[in-house]
Design a protein that fits this description.
- There is one protein chain.
- 44% of the residues lie in helices and 15% in strands.
- It is of the alpha/beta class and 130 residues long.
- It has one domain (2-129).
- Helix 3 packs across helix 5.
- The longest helix has 17 residues, at 68-84.
- 30% of the residues are buried.
- This is DUF488 family protein.
Length: 130
């Protein structure tokens, strides 16, 4: 679990076991629905698929820890392009962070080498600039 100003990052399966891990608005930030999780089980405020890495970047990265640094840089480029292009999901996420605390949920197996942490850091930086 990562905590940044107003942004928490929590693994979906941890959240299912202990909902008190969430604070504020709960947002799924994965492009794909988490395996083995019923939609009725996961009480979300929203699912913002487009803030997740592109399918091409996700396939290239393949959760390889050795590629994480380069993945992070490429993903930040994608996020900047989305924000500059007026992507709705990116705009919604940034508005949510500005209004209240959020908990971003992810389903990646690795708790530290995943896109949600990169996204949280990027969001925190965007909020600091505002």
């Amino acid at each position: 679990m990562l905590l940044l100003p107003r942004i928490k990052v929590v693994k979906v399966h941890d959240y299912l076991k202990d909902r008190s891990l969430a604070e504020g608005t709960t947002v799924l930030v994965d492009r794909l629905w988490p395996r083995g999780v019923k939609k009725s089980e996961l009480h979300l405020d929203c699912w913002l698929k487009e803030v997740a890495p592109s399918p091409e970047l996700r396939a290239w990265f393949h959760h390889d820890p050795e590629k994480f640094s380069e993945f992070s840089q490429k993903y930040r480029v994608e996020l900047a392009a989305l924000a500059d292009g007026g992507d709705d999901d990116t705009r919604i996420l940034m508005e949510l962070v500005e209004k209240s605390p959020i908990t971003m949920l992810y389903a990646a197996r690795d708790r530290s080498v995943n896109h949600a942490h990169v996204l949280a850091q990027w969001l925190a930086e965007q909020c600091a600039r505002s």
